[in-house]
UniProtKB/TrEMBL annotation:
Entries under InterPro entries matching the protein: Phage_holin_3_6
Top-level taxonomy: Bacteria, Bacillati, Actinomycetota, Actinomycetes, Micromonosporales
Organism: Planosporangium thailandense
Pfam families cross-referenced by the UniProt entry: Phage_holin_3_6
Keyword Transmembrane helix (UniProt): yes
Top-rank taxon, per record: Bacteria
Keyword terms of this UniProt record: Membrane, Transmembrane, Transmembrane helix
Name the record gives this protein: Phage holin family protein
Ranges that cross the membrane: 56-81, 87-108
Length: 145
């Protein structure tokens, strides 16, 4: 019951305003709404950009690890061909560990990059559509009174 009374009071206050006042109020509200939506989009894109940067860094780290693994593997082949003690076995173990680390970094980096794409501010777009729907409904309701 209280909600109905409050809604009626608000309706009465709005109904007694001039068209110029209502247009001024609407433009102020739209301006505020657009600024808030732009701020939300900026925050969302910043967060996604950070995610993509971290993922790209991890992919770069994976590349470096793979390069070191390749170097260790080459050293293993050289030591194996030279047949100098079982030193080749230790070099092979190091190469396998480096490749394993590269694989883990690559998988983590790839998932981070996937999570950051597409760089569309999805929540902002959804919120903006909802705002447009609300304004459209309010205009329709106002026209039928």
């Amino acid at each position: 019951m209280t909600d109905l009374i409050n809604e009626e009071r608000i309706t009465q206050r709005v109904d007694h305003r001039s068209t110029a006042d209502l247009v001024k109020l609407a433009s102020e509200q739209i301006s505020h709404l657009v600024r808030d939506e732009l701020r939300l989009a900026q925050l969302e894109l910043t967060r996604k950009g950070k995610q993509a940067g971290i993922g790209a860094g991890m992919l770069g780290g994976a590349g470096v690890m793979a390069l070191y693994g390749g170097g260790a593997l080459v050293a293993t082949v050289v030591l194996l061909l030279a047949m100098v003690l079982p030193a080749w076995l230790s070099a092979l173990i190091v190469a396998v560990l480096l490749f394993a680390m590269a694989g883990v970094l690559a998988m983590i980096g790839r998932s981070r990059v996937k999570r950051a794409t597409p760089p569309v501010p999805e929540r902002t777009v959804s919120s903006l559509k909802e705002d447009i729907g609300t304004v459209t409904e309010a205009v329709k309701e106002r026209g039928y009174r």
